Amino acid sequence: MAQALVVPLLERGRIPADQLLAVVGGSGSLDQRRGDLPAGIGLVAADDPFAQQVWTAPIQLLAVKPQQLDAVAETAGPVVGQPLLISVLAGVSLARLQHLFPGHRCVRAVPNTPALVGAGLTALAWGEGIDQGQRDQVRQLFAEVGEVLELAEAKLDAFLALTSSGPAFVALVAEAMADGAVAAGLSRDLALRLSHRTLAGTAELLDRRDLHPAQLKDMVTSPGGTTIAGVRALERIGLRSALIEAVVAAAERSRELA
User: Fold this and answer.
1) DSSP letter at 165?
2) Which of 30, 40, 106, 151 could link 155 by a cystine bridge, Cβ 3.0 to 4.6 Å?
């Protein structure tokens, strides 16, 4: 997720590469990460003494697995002033962040992977002591890669389940629709391209016309036609219920990680 956020900012020239320091878990990850990141970024392993420099930065982005958080906190060196710590960790509360990083001002951010193409959604929840200038900095950072919302922290688990886990659910739908088209006679490449464009165009239509999904469904569902036959099949196998339960399960897992 850190890469999804930082790479677009570098590509647009919003942040100079030589002002970034990326710390990875171990030296074995360095070569792979060098290939993934633009040239010029400082890249070190966590066990390198130079990695301590990251704790002196005015803005620090925390993007590790929640299970690694305690170990990372133990490595935290002395801070300069009250730097901003922006956490994108699922389920980790502001209270816990502030306890582990008492010298920081903490922000919880919940972005999603469409940030890679500037179509992201990010929810922000503020910790204590964040002044207006710092809020503006954080908003501008995430506005570069998509839409930014400010939510009460209690709403972040549901937001994450829909927007951060949601792309995986949509990808499954896209793949399944393409499989269906292949079964009906289209080539694999054409089926995938048409599936992606159908989903993208439908999402844009819903958004730009401010349509309720049921309105769009009714627009293309004529009596006795092909679409109602497909909708009937989806209802029979429980697609609607499955997607509802997927979002609820993701939200519950986010709460468990806390």
Assistant:
1) S
2) 151
Tokens of 239: 């697609």
> How wide is the angle at C-alpha 211 spanned by C-alphas 208 and 217, nearest 5°?
125
pLDDT digits (tens, 9 = 90+) for 106-123: 999 999 999 888 899 999
CA-to-CA distance for 131 and 138, rounded, in angstroms?
A: 11
Which residue is associated with the tokens 């599936």? Answer: 195
Residues of the chain short of pLDDT 70, as ranges, are: 26-29, 31-36, 38
Can you tell me the distance from the alpha carbon of 82 to that of 204, in angstroms, rounded to the nearest whole number? 41
Give the count of alpha carbons within 13 A of 95, CB side only.
3
Residue 144's contacts (CB-CB under 8 Å, 6 or more residues apart) are 8, 9, 12, 14, 118
Residue tagged 């633009």 (tokens): 38
Q: Let me know: does 83 contact 131? Beta carbons within 8 Å.
A: no
Please state the length of the chain.
258
Q: Do residues 40 and 18 touch, judged by C-beta distance below 8 A?
A: yes
pTM of the entire predicted model: 0.87
CB 106, CB 76: distance < 8 Å: no
pLDDT of residue 190: 98
The candidate with the shortest Cα–Cα distance to 217, out of 208, 205, 243, is: 205
Per-residue CA distances from 106 to 58, 84, 139 (Å): 12, 6, 14
Instruction: Confirm if 196 and 174 have CB atoms less than 8 A apart.
Output: yes
- Please count the other Cβ atoms lying within 10 Å of the Cβ belonging to residue 86: 25
- Report how far apart, in Å, the C-alpha atoms of 233 and of each of 22, 93, 126, 187, 227 are: 49, 41, 45, 23, 10
Q: Is the dihedral of CA 219, 221, 224, 226 positive or negative?
A: positive
